[in-house]
Write a structure and sequence with these properties.
The complex is a heterodimer of chains A (about 350) and B (about 270). Chain A is built from eight helices and 20 strands. With about 350 residues, chain A is α+β, with helices and mostly antiparallel strands. Classes of the chains: A alpha+beta (about 350), B mainly alpha (about 270).
């Protein structure tokens, strides 16, 4: 296992800068997920770590060694590609052998590693098949196996689940999590799927437009998003965002009028334009006349089993509330909802920065 | 596909028969004439039934060192093919992978080598090879044929390399392989059908070439095509030997193409990238 450090790492294509002075420390054995929408620079960052893209500026170290000018083959990394990139003219066994060849191991060790890896991944019966004869899920396993046999210090995953169907995705996600425990490797994993990130990561790095927006554990980025972008990107369904203005200790918006939560009172200024953030489970149904109750219309209800999602309208705002399924109201009915004031987050409307600590 | 009616079927077979007759008649004439006794060779109508003789073949190999000329042809054709495939595919790989705005110009420049008529440069080549002492050597022909074959191979192989996903080479790179290893073990095997096509073209061109071989070789490096024509002199045309030689010349080309065909039709199914 190796640690990874990025210091002011920048990537430019000609005049266009796509990754801007990124700083990131990944500890040994840590599972870090780069998360962001497409075009945010996460894959480019991963490819720089792999050595498939040059670092335009800054310093990249793996295991304490600066590797800016080190060829991919000498970095001690292994990578699982989004499209698997299996060698089509080689059998599963040969794919793994080819990855082991540069290590110059003796024959028995090569066979032992291939057998062990095949056992772990359930590839035992497929070793003599060509990639074309495998299903998508099997190819995905082979791609992981090919990376695993090398027992690299650093594992890189580039959206490894994006070509799998939903059911398989959940299953392979579990397997990756188990593998991490077993392998003891440092893992850098790229995805645009926040569920993958939340379930797998020790730490999530949220990127946008080539900048790191926030780094933290899944709990931190969920509970304490640093800005409106992170707040809406993490969590499903997304956090509701309601524009408002601070007036005389109230958050005043269209058909919304809430007291500024006490803990945030001295963090906002009179007249400041803000965005109120509230997650769907923190919007609850209350009786008319309850303090802080807001009148709403239920437009659509989505039944999910235990919970139901309500698409509600408050004035001009559309929002989602998550309520116990047994209590879901009828569509088109008028209801009253209340925001859990402990869960309210306030973001500056100009900068998007959170005013919560 | 629609099933053909009886009439169409007959028409199709008729057309096929015509095509076959057009292509196979010369070969039949060569093959039959090569074993016909000289007196009946030009009989009209042609003698279809006769007792074959091997005299022409025996004379071919006893009058002249024809085996040596066949050997020369093989050396020149295989040498030029190997040389062209090696450098053509390396050049093609570079053109396919290096992103540079002038790369198109380089590729065009390589293709432009094929644009002038080869006969135009026979005399300069003669002078050059005479000066450097390569006249009447197989190496001289290998060099000349390669100047024609390398551009062809480069262009053919570029197309095949373009089809090989770069993700596979990236996978090889992170798997610990250098550029040459990844080219040799990953890219080239996947472009094998291209190599087979190139090899067939290079071999056939080099094997059949006549003008350069005639001008630049003498008794030492003479190739089979030129040797056959030497039976056509001002005194006499020894048709039997010419036919026997021609028939022998046909054989290696057929063997070579059949050998390469295995790779042409093997059709690697790309199951690598989704």
């Amino acid at each position: 296992m190796s640690s990874i450090q990025l210091r002011n790492v920048t990537k430019r294509y000609g005049q266009t800068e796509v990754v801007h002075e990124i700083d990131l420390d990944i500890a040994e054995r840590e599972f870090v997920v780069l998360l962001g929408p497409s075009g945010c620079g996460k894959t480019t960052t991963l490819r720089m770590v792999a050595g498939l893209e040059d670092v335009s500026d800054g310093e990249l170290s793996i295991g304490g060694r600066v590797v800016n000018d080190v060829a991919p083959k000498d970095r001690g990394v292994a990578m699982v590609f989004q499209n698997y990139a299996l060698y089509p003219h080689m059998s599963v066994r040969q794919n793994m052998e080819f990855a082991l060849r540069p290590l110059k191991l003796d024959k028995s060790e090569v066979n032992r590693r291939i057998t062990d890896t095949a056992d772990i991944l359930g590839l035992g019966d497929l070793l003599e098949r060509r990639p074309a004869q495998l299903s998508g899920g099997q190819r995905q396993r082979v791609a992981m196996g090919r990376a695993m046999v090398r027992t690299p210090g650093v594992f890189l995953f580039d959206e490894p689940l994006s070509n799998l169907d939903a059911k398989l995705r959940t299953q392979v996600r579990w397997e990756i999590a188990k593998l991490h425990k077993r392998l003891d490797s440092t893992i850098l994993y790229v995805t645009h799927d926040q569920v993958e990130a939340m379930t797998l990561a020790d730490r999530i790095v949220i990127m946008r437009d080539g900048y790191i927006e926030q780094t933290g554990t899944p709990e931190e980025v969920y509970a304490h998003p640093r800005n409106a972008f992170v707040a809406t990107f993490i969590g499903s369904p997304a956090m509701n965002m309601v524009p408002a203005t601070v007036r005389e200790g109230q958050l005043a918006g269209d058909h919304v009028n809430l007291p500024v939560p006490g803990r945030l009172a001295d963090r906002v200024a009179e007249g400041q334009r803000v965005t109120i953030g509230i997650r769907p489970p923190d919007v609850s149904l209350v009786d008319e006349g309850t303090a802080g109750a807001l009148a709403a219309t239920v437009e659509v209800t989505e039944y999910l089993g235990n919970e139901a999602l309500l698409d509600i309208r408050i004035g001009s705002h559309e929002m989602i509330a998550e309520v116990p399924a047994s209590r879901r109201p009828a569509e088109d009915s008028r209801v009253f909802v209340r925001f859990n004031s402990d869960a309210i987050r306030i973001f500056d409307a100009e900068t998007g920065e959170s005013v919560n600590a | 596909m629609n099933k053909l009616g009886t009439r169409q079927t007959i028409l199709v077979y008729l057309l096929l028969a015509i095509v076959l007759i057009v292509f196979l008649t010369p070969i039949y004439i060569i093959a039959s004439s090569s074993v016909k006794p000289t007196p009946i060779m030009f009989q009209k109508p042609p003698a279809l039934l006769f007792s074959p003789t091997w005299d022409h073949y025996i004379a071919l190999f006893s009058d002249r060192p024809f085996a040596k000329f066949i050997g020369n042809s093989l050396i020149v054709a295989l040498g030029s093919t190997a040389f062209s495939l090696t450098f053509g595919s390396l050049a093609a790989y570079a053109i396919s992978r290096i992103k540079h705005r002038r790369m198109g110009d380089v590729a065009f420049w390589i293709l432009s080598m094929r644009m002038f008529p080869p006969i135009a440069v026979v005399v300069p080549y003669y002078i050059i090879f005479k000066t450097v002492g390569l006249l009447d050597t197989p190496l001289a022909l290998i060099i000349i044929y390669s100047t024609v074959n390398i551009p062809l191979t480069t262009w053919l192989m570029k197309g095949f390399f373009d089809e090989v996903p770069t993700a596979l080479e990236e996978a090889a790179a992170v798997d610990g392989h250098g550029l040459l290893s990844s080219f040799w073990h990953v890219t080239l095997p996947l472009a094998a059908p291209g190599l087979a096509v190139s090899a067939v073209f290079c071999f056939i061109f080099s094997w059949n070439e006549f003008i350069f071989a005639l001008m630049l070789t003498g008794s030492n490096a003479q190739t089979a095509t030129v040797a056959v024509m030497s039976f056509w002199s001002s005194d006499a045309v020894q048709w039997g030997r010419i036919m026997a030689g021609s028939f022998i010349i046909l054989i290696p080309g057929v063997i070579f193409v059949l050998t390469c065909q295995r790779w042409l039709v093997r059709g690697l199914t790309l199951g690598s990238v989704k």
